[in-house]
Design a protein that fits this description.
It is built from four helices and six strands; from the N terminus they run E-E-E-H-E-H-E-H-E-H. The chain has a six-stranded mixed beta sheet, sandwiched between helices. The chain is α/β, with parallel strands linked by helices and 123 residues long. Pfam families: STAS (PF01740). This is Anti-sigma factor antagonist.
C-alpha cells in the first residue's frame, strides 16, 4: 500500500510478524497530516486483532506541529483500543519537538524497527 504524493509525503503500511508497520518518509505537515492519520488509523483498526502498531520515522525529513497532533491522536486511539504503539527511529529534530511539547514521555520509543520487534517479542 505505498503512497507517494507530490507534496513530499510517502507512507507504506505492511504487516510484519505480530506488528503493523507504518513507514513514513518525506514531510508531514498541515497539507498531509490528516491523510497520514486516516490511513494509519484505518489500517490499524482494520487488523481487528491485538497487532502492535510500529511507526517508523527514520526517513521523515520534516514535521510541523500537525505531525505531533497526528501522533497524539494515534496515541489516543491506542488508549481507546488497549493496543500497543511504538515509535521507531525518531529523527533527532522530532525527538526534540516531542520532548519540548511533553509528548515524548507518553510514547514507547525504540531506536530502530529491529529494536521495536525485539521489544514486541520480549513482551
Amino acid at each position: 500500500m505505498p503512497e507517494q504524493t507530490d507534496d513530499g509525503f510517502r507512507l507504506v503500511i505492511f504487516p510484519h510478524e505480530e506488528c503493523l508497520v507504518a513507514d513514513v518518509a518525506g514531510e508531514v505537515d498541515y497539507r498531509n497530516a490528516d491523510r497520514f492519520q486516516e490511513r494509519v488509523g484505518a489500517a490499524w483498526r482494520e487488523t481487528g486483532d491485538d497487532r502492535v502498531l510500529v511507526i517508523v520515522l527514520r526517513e521523515l525529513t520534516f514535521a510541523d506541529s500537525s505531525a505531533l497532533v497526528v501522533l497524539a491522536r494515534l496515541l489516543d486511539q491506542r488508549h481507546d483500543s488497549g493496543r500497543r504503539l511504538i515509535l521507531a527511529a525518531l529523527p533527532a529534530y522530532l525527538e526534540r519537538m516531542m520532548v519540548i511539547s511533553g509528548l515524548y514521555e507518553a510514547f514507547e520509543v525504540e531506536p530502530s524497527l529491529e529494536a521495536a520487534m525485539e521489544a514486541v517479542r520480549a513482551a
